Amino acid sequence: MTGSTVRCLEFFSGIGGLHHGVNIAGIGAEVVASFDVNEIANKVYAHNFKKEPSKKTIDRLTTKDIERYQADCWLLSPPCQPYTQGGKMKDMDDPRAKPLLHLIKLLSTLDTKPTYLFLENVKNFEISQSRKELVTQLSALGYEINECLLSPLQFGIPNHRLRYYLTARLRPHTPAGNIDDRTIHTTWPFEKEQAFDVPELADFLEPLNDDDHTFTVPSRYILRLHNFRLGIWIQSYHDQWIITANEEIRDTASLLEFGLRFLTPTEIGRLHAFPMASDSPAPSQEEEAGVPRRFFAPTGLPHLCFPEGVTRQQQYRLLGNSLNCWVVAELLRCVLFK
Ligand SMILES: C[S@@+](CC[C@H](N)C(=O)[O-])C[C@H]1O[C@@H](n2cnc3c(N)ncnc32)[C@H](O)[C@@H]1O
């Protein structure tokens, strides 16, 4: 480690959800380089963090490319399509799994391995062969591993979005253990679930003019839905998000009168706990290092801001690919860097 700052590499950086997570965690870490092939995501990233990600494809990174950063920590949020129904769950046979598998191999070739590793992915990653490769490699190299499946709702954010997280810390002499016997935590904190107050969804919404129909859900979308359960939940639909109410609806036409609208990119950014320019400073609260905190809207610089020329559709897509910065921050504070 160089000085007291933890040097992080952010792989699959997108719009920098993991970087924001590191900042929110306040763990004295710095992202020294990031990697992504998506030019629009990189443009947003550079606009916010004033540092351009490398657009070299991750599957071509060499040991030398990585070693020059002398990184202590790897942050990874690889593509999720290999593990989703929509992506046909091809797992290791999906070419989009290749960069992750490449990094897993690369890890063993490094003279100095990162002490810390954090990975985020979708539910179902935990049953994949890719995860098996990752956990087997980390165990063989002497990492102590924690895995969990958690939703922002468990952290006090009104958004249900179950995701897989893995934290790994290099601890020589950690026994490898049997990979099939591993616990995947589903409570937060891991030891004993704590009920965090969940603020109203309304607290995350922007006031919109009644005569502004920019975000209105077109009736043809609503009429195409059938028989779905409405909850105070948010449904991703065609890369956009809708807020729905709490009951089972059989007659979708009856939804038309609700005046449903999509969430705005700012609202999705808030629900993903990105620091936003529009948010007022968080109320002060006592916090103890490594102890789970009550959610507050992160503020400060850098915050999430889309540069001119990024269309609303692109903003939705980038946000949809991103992650919950608060959940990342709490797992970093309370598990990986505890
Ligand atoms: C699930 S998203 C991660 C999003 C990110 N955590 C964020 O906060 O926006 C996966 C990212 O991996 C990038 N990606 C996919 N294949 C890649 C490759 N071979 N090399 C570099 N980046 C890649 C995609 O462009 C996408 O931005």
Automatic annotation (TrEMBL):
Swiss-Prot/TrEMBL keywords: Methyltransferase, S-adenosyl-L-methionine, Transferase
Transmembrane intervals: none
Coiled coil: none
One annotated GO molecular function: methyltransferase activity
Active-site residue numbers: 80
One annotated Gene Ontology cellular component of this protein: nucleus
Gene Ontology biological process terms, A to Z: methylation
Family: Belongs to the class I-like SAM-binding methyltransferase superfamily. C5-methyltransferase family.
Name of the protein in question: S-adenosyl-L-methionine-dependent methyltransferase
Species name: Absidia glauca (Pin mould)
